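FAQ

Q: What does a record look like?
A: Structure on top, sequence underneath. For example:
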């Protein structure tokens, strides 16, 4: 398994980037959001990768950060969602927006992606929301955590916790990072600030 690539960008396409590492150019299928975040051709870049092995091909998918990679893996765990559909979704929605769409049941947001009809969007929400429910029961209230200051998530903080669960982060893990975040911020902003805090550790 190739975990990541770190090298010079030698080519970018609408949904792919080629990174040269040790004299070998690796083509990675990727999202428009990742391409926008990468430096220009000829500069050094690093992407996290996911390898897809099929009978007729071996493909690499590359992502600018682990949140996008984790979201891609969750999306492709849904029946009927392949790499191209997951990349299409993450090209029109950030991982934070995808998590919010799933946790709030917003199928319309998912159908903005090419190849995603209402039926598939509903399936994505159903299958991933079930995973969220396993981690964050709807009637759960967090009042405190062991070895941490008392934190009482409510409103948008609670919604952010549910959305972060879609990205694979448990409530016990993320809540300590939310201590200094303004609960009046939009859900996507809270998620982004939490992921930044996690990334600094």
């Amino acid at each position: 398994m190739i975990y990541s690539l770190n090298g010079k960008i030698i080519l970018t396409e609408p949904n792919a980037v080629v990174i040269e590492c040790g004299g070998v150019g690796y083509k990675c299928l990727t999202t428009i959001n990742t391409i926008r975040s990468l430096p220009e051709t000829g500069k050094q870049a690093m992407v996290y990768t996911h390898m897809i092995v099929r009978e007729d091909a071996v493909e690499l998918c590359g992502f600018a950060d682990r949140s996008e990679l984790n979201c891609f893996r969750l999306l492709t765990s849904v029946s009927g969602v392949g790499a191209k559909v997951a990349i299409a979704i993450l090209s029109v929605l950030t991982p934070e927006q995808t998590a919010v769409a799933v946790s709030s049941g917003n199928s319309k947001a998912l159908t903005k992606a090419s190849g995603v009809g209402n039926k598939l969007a509903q399936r994505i929400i159903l299958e991933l929301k079930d995973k969220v429910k396993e981690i964050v029961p709807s009637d759960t209230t967090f009042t405190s955590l062991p070895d941490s200051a008392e934190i009482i998530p409510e409103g948008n903080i609670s919604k952010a916790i549910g959305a972060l669960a879609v990205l694979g982060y448990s409530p016990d893990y993320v809540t300590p990072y939310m201590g200094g975040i303004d609960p009046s911020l939009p859900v996507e902003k809270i998620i982004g600030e939490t992921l930044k805090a996690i990334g600094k550790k």
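Q: Is there anything notable about this one?
A: Confidence is low (pLDDT under 50) at residues 134-153.
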